[in-house]
Known about the structure:
This protein has about 375 residues and is mainly α. A 3-stranded antiparallel beta sheet has the order 3-4-5, with no helix packed on it. The chain has a two-stranded antiparallel sheet with strand order 1-2. It has a single domain, classed as Glycosyltransferase (Alpha/alpha barrel), CATH 1.50.10. The protein is about 50% helix and about 5% strand. The radius of gyration is 19 Å and the shape is globular. The site of glycine has 4 residues, from loops.
Amino acid sequence: MTPTGSAVTAALRTIDANLAEFGDRYPGDTTVDDRYRLRLGTGGNVGWTTSFWPGMLWLAHDLTGDERYRRAALGHVRSFADRVESGTDIDTHDLGFLYTLSCVLPWRSTGDRPARRAALAAADHLLTRVLEPAGIIQAWGDMRDPRQQGRTIIDSLMNTPLLFWASETTGDPRYAAAARRHTTQLRDHILRPDGTTFHTFYWDPRTGEPVRGETEQGNSDESCWARGQAWGIYGFALNHRYTGDPSFLRASRRCADYFLAHLPADGVAYWDLEFTDGSGEERDSSAAAIAVGGLLELAALAGAEADRYRAAAGRILDSLIAGYATAGHPSSNALLRHGVYDKPKGIGVDEGTLWGDYFYLEALTRAVRPDLPRHW
Ligand code: GLY
């Protein structure tokens, strides 16, 4: 078997064990000492990462065709429908991450109408987070919270596919228009002239003027947080796919070129791109896995440069398989080790992460089944 084939087999073995352990409940955002436990003790559907668990089940179904995974993935729709109906922990732009994987996928795959309804309710709620006159989608918290007002973050580029889908499925152009305006603002302000990105950026809520960049999870306001840069590669490329806007494709390529030029010898980024070999800092394997997805998206779009981006994606994925996957560490129930959630706050440092696992499995799936429809 090829190393990729063995990696898929090992990943599915871990997913089977996690299905037995977690079922329709949710593991935490990250492992603790390399093991996921039930989220906040009870496994409830809160936070921004719960959809990565059903997302992995959909990937397992893509890889195997096994009905067991599809049934298990569909079993999560009810929880996400309840969450949006009850307004539980939905004051966030992460509704895109949450509802694309948990509800848009089942709608696309099986025509599940409750899933479509829940995803549209989430898209409607996301529209309430558009802040005028800036035309950005506020990232976090109550829209009147002075600390959060006018702030968006690079990760939000992965949330706009929910809005593009909502326009496609309803014929109502408002969702896609909001997504495009938001992405245009990020292109102009969160992406710096040297191809790096701010993690977060504020607009004046009254005038709509761009104000300043700031970090939350990077090493400093001026440095380049590795996962943010990876979200930029993938997110701008997806926004280009939905709009055809060539400036979004250029933005994705600029993010990619900087990211690739600042990788250590094994191709797996340190948690902030200002660190490299010898720094003693931790890697963020999740940034690497996300970047693979973005680079493959670019490889599908970027004409003459496609081979370069495809080769870079392959090199990073091979390195994740060889040095970061848990196949040789059966004591872990993650797919990938050595991720970092939030180093400045000391949360999830050098641990498995639910999103890193999802994007690693997505990358493996794309490597062995490039013909399958995309999830985003
Ligand atoms: N989207 C939050 C993070 O990447 O940590």
